[in-house]
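The freezer alarm interrupted the setup, so I double-checked each line after restarting. Inputs confirmed:
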Amino acid sequence: MNRWIVLLLLAVTLPLSAADLVDQLSVRAGSLQSMQGRFSMQRQIAVLPLPLESKGRFKYSKGLGLRWETLSPVQSLLSINQQGVSVDGVQRSQIGVREFAKALLDIFAGDMEELADTFTISSIGDLNQWQLILEPRIHEVAARLVKISITGAKNTESIEILETNMDITLINLVTESVNTQPANSEGNYN
Amino acid sequence: MGFPLGYRYFSSWQAVVIWLFLILTSMGYSGFKIASGNGFNSNILSLMPINIVMNQSHSLGLQEKAERRFVILVSDVSENMNARAGLASATALREELGALETVAMISQTDNTEDTLRSFYRPYRYQILSAATRDILQSKSAQEIAEGRLRSFYSPIPDYALYSFSDDPLNVSGSWVQSLFKRSVAVSHNDLPSVQEDDVTWHLITGELQGSPFNLRIQEPLVKVIGEFEQKHPHLRLLTSGLVFHAASGSKLAQAEISTVGLGSLLAVLLLVLVVFRSLRQSLFILLVLGSSALVALSATWWIFGNVHLVTVAFGSTLLGLAADYCFHFLVKLNATGSPDKAINLLFKGLIISALSSVTAYLIQLFSPFPGLQQFAVFVASGLAAACFTVLVLAGQFSEREPKPVRLGSIYDGCLEPLYARVHVHSRAFIALFMVLLLSLVAIVMSRGVSDDLRLLNTSGSELISVEAKVSSLLGSVESQRYFLIEGNSRQEVLLRSQNVIDSVGLHSSIDLISVTQIMPALEQQRSDYVLIKEKIFSSEGALSILCDRLDSDCRWRQPIPAFNPTLGNNKFPTVMQSLFPQLSMLKDNVSVVFFRDPSKVDLALFKSLQLKGVTYIDRVESLSNLLKQFRNQVSWLLAGFLGLLLIISYWMFSRGSLIVMGSVIASSVTALFFAAPNGVSLFHILALLLVVGIAVDTAVFFITPGLDRNTWSAATLASLTSIIAFGLLSMSKVPLLNQFGQVVAYGLVTSWIITPMFWFIFNQSYKK
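Predicted 3D structure, all chains:
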């Protein structure tokens, strides 16, 4: 009998815990003002035997958006903000790009509410070691993405993107500095 | 002069039998038409002569495609603007509408991409967007390969229709982008949505299973939307589609039938009760009005098959006009105490008056507007029936003590002495009248003319502004202006369409929509195929360079397949036909190029394009020109009518013709002065025909039997009821009805005031 009670309690508390984790991550990200660091990206294109590797720097700021600068093997600058997406200063408005870029910006901002408009979010772990899995709800995004897995601890550490054509992109992030609001909020990066 | 039928004939039993037969037949026929359920029509377009203009679009099948579609945009406009709550409500509304038998909802979540992917696969190496063509033509293979390579290192991959191995340089991705190029991005969730600043509009699209003018089709849809709006006051709904204009037109017509019809009827009954104080005489008027309306409806049904609701609204003024004959008779009856004497005195006037009015209305049969033709038949037949009924029923009254109506004392006490002064100073009056008349003519002429298309609007301004907002949110095409492309073959039409896009694109950034964007001409496909083969697939092409840069042997690489000339030979998938309406516009020898943003239209450029087989169509301009042409025609008709009137009235009344013409001219000019502040339109001129008819009526009754307290009383009552009827019509929200109402109301007031003055000046008997 006791075993059934435990199972029942687990069944009730587990989904709550998952929702709580997303909420807690959202609260923690709420205090984030800016962050910057390095990234390495591996892109595995289905028909190519070796992954394409690139490296560079990123900078996220709450007001200015995301600046993604690839330094090698090619140099390019991707900017995502409220005004839209630009690559090397040229605006891009292709199908699905707006939704894709917004998702990336929301991931850096930790804006779970916005992400929930586009994705179904499931989570594993706790605030010290967590994983979020985003599965698209919007037709334009679902046509291109199967899912996005995000893992992290204090900060976001990796983003894995699985596309519908089976191309996989793995981005590892090394956060060098984080600025948050004065510590009056509950969850804090520091 | 004599008449072929004397007044006594109308009191004979034969006349009564004919009248009864007419009324009973009309009653039976009207009952049959009403019971059949298709006696009334609310199709506003059927009132307009735009078929001439729309012939071309009809032949392309544009009209029937478009007229059944409707769009509803739903948004949460409450303080917190909850997009998710808006979505849930929009989904609920979609489900409610989907449950209607008369509506089919159009699914926006079909997998369009899969359809495009499989449809274009055989042609993927022979179709290019203008942007990619430009890149392939202007850049080296090295630069093209480098560009593609850079895209691989972006965290946001380029949109691609096919996998890397199927389209390594992603030319199809750019092609598909160009197909969906639009000013507004529509994103798909459970329902598609459009973003406008902070507001998210959820899009519901549907198609009616019948004509939008069919009340049984339009009413359930409008009811569901109305109830939904009431239940969800925090939501804002924007609607677009002919069905909403049709529903609004029906509602407007029904409201105006009630206003004008009931208003006229009440005014007539009130006047009768106040002036005549007799139930029998009130019943007499009701019988005349009822017979008149019954015959009017039957005649219109018999000639046109159905009666438009706007005709009934407009025709409600008939009640005011038909009552005129009753008033003349009843006033004389009360004055003389003898129906025989009364009708003897009035007979000539009644016949001339009815004939002139019926002629004035029937002239409108020459008008190009089916609505006005219906109206002409409705009122002319109604007036003829009213006159006949008065003559027949007059004999049914018995002799009585003479008891003139009290209204005449106003004439005796105040007006006759006043008008007598006019007679004394007739020269001064005529001089003053001429100066005033010429001044008014000069003012009216200085205002010019108006052929504004908005006169044809039958939808309220709010509906039109909502329609414009939906159009701007969805980036809808401009359907009033386009290029018509003609050629000897489908390929020639496609090439000429491409010429338009290229030529306009050189000078303007306007977003053009052509079938060539879905199916380029074969010549273009061949040229693109050669370009792709050379720049991408040749041994020094971009693909080889890309493989080197990726350190790959690209063993999956396939040689470019042979050119495939079959694009467009088979039917396009349904999803594509629905997404790209331009496909339905392509016939073997004709097509259309539309544009999206009317604000970017460069009229001078469009009109100056001298391309073979290409004609710029401006339906707004065509329709304005049509109105102008009709206005000129009707103006000449009016001039001819006035000329004829002068001859006939001189032949009948010699010097008395001055009374008729003076009254007609003064009433017409004054009516235009007051009712046409922004220029004279076709509808002002058409209404003048009625003013002429009514002014002639008044003048004729003054000439025969002659102006006295009784004739004046009858003319006053007659004018008053008609002024009320047309005054109510002048409050119509439909511009053309409004103009009609105003012109006739001002004309009537003028004729009522001025005709006695002319009578006093020009009538020989008064001089004696």
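Quick read of the result. The longest strand of chain B covers residues 199-208.
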